[in-house]
């Protein structure tokens, strides 16, 4: 059984997709052992509690500096003993010590087709604003392992989404979530839970059964 910790910052729509995926049998051999959020007012915490999932708020604002926060954050993650950490809209930089300790055991969902519209400064609506400003015809989402860079880890899954002429950042964000994020994040977790993902030389191979 794969024990996962889901880290979120906002409404938790990707968290809900994971919860639904487990309930519907799309994600197998997996249990959410806890949800960690950096925002006390985030609806993601309510989603977790409604499903009897332990939910913890750890905010950088509650600590004197980032080093103290990083220590408390890593301690809480370690207490939950996850096999996999899932960053599902988590807008906090992951401590380098955590990346090292959980190498190839942290995954992130990013709302673009990496390497486009990713890296420093590209998060939330800013990703979709960038896509529309550039006039791309196709965007999408990417699930990747987390390394010591920003959106630079090995890519696990990607799914494309068409951009419509009348799109706003908000409508495009919604379509990318519905057509890509909520599909490939549960799929990636299921693949990992069933031993079907390997990483060699910085590239992911999906093992067929």
Descriptive terms for the model:
209 residues; alpha/beta; 7-stranded mixed sheet; two-stranded antiparallel sheet; 6 helices; 35% helix; 24% strand
Structural commentary:
This protein has 209 residues and is of the alpha/beta class. 35% of the residues lie in helices and 24% in strands. It is built from 6 helices and 9 strands. Strands 3-2-1-4-5-6-7 form a 7-stranded mixed sheet, with helices on one face. The two termini are 18 Å apart.
SSE pattern: EHEHEHEHEHEEHEE
- Strand order in the sheet with the most strands: 3-2-1-4-5-6-7
The tally of helices reads: 6
User: What's the total number of strands?
Assistant: 9
Radius of gyration, whole Å: 16 Å
Mean pLDDT over the residues: 95
Strand-pairing-aware structural class: alpha/beta
Which percent band covers the strand fraction?
A: 15-25%
**Spans where pLDDT lies below 50 across 5 or more residues:** none
Distance between termini?
A: 18 Å
Q: Main sheet?
A: 7 strands, mixed
The helix content is 25-40%
Layout of secondary structure:
Blueprint (H helix, E strand, L loop, with lengths): L1 E7 L4 H11 L6 E8 L5 H8 L4 E3 L8 H14 L4 E4 L8 H6 L4 E5 L14 H10 L3 E8 L9 E8 L6 H25 L3 E4 L2 E4 L3
Parallel strand pairs: 1-2, 1-4, 2-3, 4-5
Antiparallel strand pairs: 5-6, 6-7, 8-9
Helix pairs in contact: 1-6, 5-6
